[in-house]
């Protein structure tokens, strides 16, 4: 059974899909889809998205299960290591996945990321520092990066 619910975010509706154990997809929607039964993972995801957009969550701890090729999954896994408020280039991700010449393939995999926001494909920029394509629209990518730049992790120190 597939569960889904829509979260109304500052960048539009995000429809979250779950198989009951993991998040399988988060997509941008033009309209709110009515929930089809809920599950714990879906409820947790909506709560964490709310915290993220309020600036109270820097890391998601939701189990995800994106569907894609082995290469796509390697790229999406690397994206999960880019810290909140930071960016990486397509070339850096290509290098980390085994071949710095795979920049275009990384871009294609990034564009097919099925779990927007949680798998942070918005944190990938061009080597020249410029914003490049984003499946949700460049304006959303810019908004997400600006949102994250406004919240810096608090460092706990003894002094």
What does this structure look like?
This protein has about 160 residues and is α+β, with helices and mostly antiparallel strands. It is built from 5 helices and 5 strands. The protein has helices spanning about 40-55, 70-80, 90-95, 105-110, 140-150; strands spanning about 5-10, 10-20, 25-30, 90, 125. α3 crosses α4 (about 105-110). The longest helix is centred in the first third of the chain and has 14 residues, at about 40-55. The radius of gyration is 16 Å and the shape is globular.
Show the helix and strand layout.
Elements: E1 3-9, E2 12-18, E3 23-29, H1 40-53, H2 70-79, E4 88-89, H3 90-96, H4 103-111, E5 124-125, H5 138-149
Parallel strand pairs: 4-5
Antiparallel strand pairs: 1-2, 2-3
Give the strand order, joined by hyphens, for the main sheet. Answer: 1-2-3
Number of helices: 5
Q: Cα-atom Rg, whole angstroms?
A: 16 Å
Helix-residue proportion: 25-40%
Number of strands: 5
Structural classification: alpha+beta
Estimate the strand proportion.
15-25%
The end-to-end distance, rounded to whole angstroms, is 52 Å
Overall form: globular
Overall average residue pLDDT: 90
What's the order of the H and E elements? EEEHHEHHEH
* Major beta-sheet overview: 3 strands, antiparallel
């Amino acid at each position: 059974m597939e569960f889904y619910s829509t979260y109304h975010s500052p960048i539009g509706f995000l429809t979250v899909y779950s198989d009951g154990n993991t998040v399988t997809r988060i997509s941008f929607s033009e309209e709110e889809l009515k929930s089809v039964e809920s599950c714990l993972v879906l409820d947790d995801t909506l709560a964490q998205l709310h915290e993220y957009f309020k600036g109270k969550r820097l890391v998601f701890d939701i189990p995800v299960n994106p569907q894609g090729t082995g290469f796509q999954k390697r790229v999406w896994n690397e994206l999960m290591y880019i810290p909140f408020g930071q960016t990486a280039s397509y070339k850096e991700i290509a290098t980390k996945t085994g071949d710095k010449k795979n920049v275009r393939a990384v871009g294609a995999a990034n564009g097919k990321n099925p779990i927007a926001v949680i798998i942070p494909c918005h944190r990938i920029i061009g080597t020249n520092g410029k914003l490049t394509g984003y499946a949700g629209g460049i304006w959303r990518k810019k908004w997400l990066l600006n949102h994250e730049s406004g919240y810096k992790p608090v460092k706990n120190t003894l002094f």
